[in-house]
């Protein structure tokens, strides 16, 4: 017997107050995107949850895609059966036997929505539990801390039975907390920062600075590949490719001492902020992590962050490198990130970058660069924007279809 439905549980915060409808809509939209290949599936919204009617689609096919939808805390494959005691008992046993790992203890929780069903929920707990115990004598009942909970819902027309609980992606539905630009390098950290920002309900547009031809086309390809990994959780994502060579070269002609990185990073921040403004984004997300490198001390983050007014979101700021790597592996970006690439910022690296930049000094250096604003504006004007999707073919189709 294969599951006919999937029950998806939405996060508690998703359910509160006036936002509920908007949150549910955002989850539905993402669900329809990830389940698009399975056209037979029907969607039903109920209070606090969404039910998928599989209509023949195997549960195993939808299980992994469902784990990429933010706002879903957990989900369960559901067996449906007629409203008859014997049917419910048999189905309950099937659901217990179908679990991935067999529990040692369990309890039955029956909810009787249909009051015309002849046995009340207390009686049903015993009738169903007893039946399962007779068939699986190694199992024990534990009503306080069971390893598995067998749920039965007696609805108007049918009974639902489920016991397996798969963990969802959690977080807030995508975009329900607004939009941010993600400063995306080719490294390990920023894709993870992007994932965490999206999980917290931020839609993202990626911004990448390159110094072509000093940095290769291959490193641009690598960044696109990283955006493809993020697109698994979001659908098509905008990628802004900022040509940084000219800004960088001009800055380097004027100043090449130990505050160079700070000055470059501040220019990147300002450009990112401009792109955020133009694209209606309300924050800048970076992959900075406290103490990792010279530019990520408190003093550096302060000097760099003061270049802009938008909130800076640094999801990794207090995470250890190992935790970050584990997340990078989980979202499948790690393998791409460790491919060799040249970062624009490693181009004209000073011999000893300052770990304690003084904001006043940095600002006075920038005052000696009256052309800086115009250079940054020029970089914004020359920024190329692409739509990136999970696979290249979809990207091309997108571009093609936009002609019609
Ligand atoms: P990552 O692993 O994300 O490259 P990192 O530990 O190497 O981070 P830095 O190189 O100091 O740290 O960069 C800090 C942050 O600045 C990055 O996480 C990213 O958000 C941003 N950044 C750095 N280089 C670029 C770039 N070329 N384009 C866009 N953003 C960048
Ligand atoms: Mg880096």
TrEMBL record:
Biological or metabolic pathway of the protein: Cofactor biosynthesis; thiamine diphosphate biosynthesis
Q: Name one GO cellular component term.
A: cytosol
Q: Name one GO molecular function term.
A: tRNA-uracil-4 sulfurtransferase activity
Q: Which GO terms describe its biological process?
A: thiamine biosynthetic process; thiamine diphosphate biosynthetic process; thiazole biosynthetic process; tRNA 4-thiouridine biosynthesis
The family database entries (Gene3D superfamilies) matched by this protein are listed as: 3.30.2130.30, HUPs
Instruction: Output the superkingdom of the source species.
Output: Bacteria
Listed EC numbers: 2.8.1.4
Identification of the protein by name:
Probable tRNA sulfurtransferase
The organism encoding this protein is: Paenibacillus elgii
